[in-house]
Amino acid sequence: MTRCADRDNAPEARGLAMVDVTIRGAGIFGLSIAWECLQRGASVQVIDPYGVASGASGGLVGALAPHVPENWNSKKAFQFESLMMADSFWTSVQAASGLSAGYARLGRVQPLPENAALDLALARGENARQLWQGQAGWRVLNERPSWAPDSASGYWIFDDLSARINPHAACLALAEALRSLGASISTEGDDQGRVIGPGASTAHLVAVASLAATLGVARSPASAIAALRAMAG
Ligand SMILES: Cc1cc2nc3c(=O)[nH]c(=O)nc-3n(C[C@H](O)[C@H](O)[C@H](O)COP(=O)(O)OP(=O)(O)OC[C@H]3O[C@@H](n4cnc5c(N)ncnc54)[C@H](O)[C@@H]3O)c2cc1C
Which protein residue has the closest C-alpha to ligand 1 atom 47? Predict the structure, then answer.
């Protein structure tokens, strides 16, 4: 009797969603969105017929390289804010999963090929001071770092914002972190709750934009949509 009553009251029996959000696609985007939804208290399932990291996110080396600090626009601002969030994001994923994502903000050295490029590099350094708000630097060096390649001009650019990641390991870490908080990841299943994935283009855009605004990577859904459209275009 009690069991029947429980069954009648089960979410499926009442036509209610078992999970709040279904995400189709277990690449770096789908898994990251799932992680952020979970962090905000939503229950989540991820469905990918080919499994975790079976698409573009399956590579072993990824460079998280910032746009050049000039001609600032919403796309560059969006990327900058995202790069600044990466450290705490991957720290929390690694803590929850016990797995390394291979993330490290090591910076990048670029030899300046000719003196003619020096003025531009110095101007970009000035821009970085303003646009990167003191949170990251872009400097021209006239002394060669011990491990850097030769520079024909005798100058090098060093930015301390660039990072590297192992995309495949990062996806496995995200998947493990998701499971540790109760999310399911499977190769098939029915949509439940809000659905984010292929074929939901406008809804997808708005959902991701709303999430980006919630995360603080964009000031509002409207600005996030503008940034996402700029990226798509
Ligand atoms: C060789 C290479 C090098 C790259 N290097 C860099 C780099 O250095 N730095 C950088 O920032 N970016 C780099 N990128 C780009 C980066 O890898 C991608 O932008 C990123 O991985 C895309 O992630 P995603 O989750 O959107 O897509 P994917 O990782 O492709 O994930 C999409 C997932 O959706 C699944 N799927 C497809 N259809 C369905 C469906 N109907 N239902 C459910 N699931 C479905 C697929 O199986 C797949 O697992 C590189 C890409 C490549 C190919």
Answer: 50
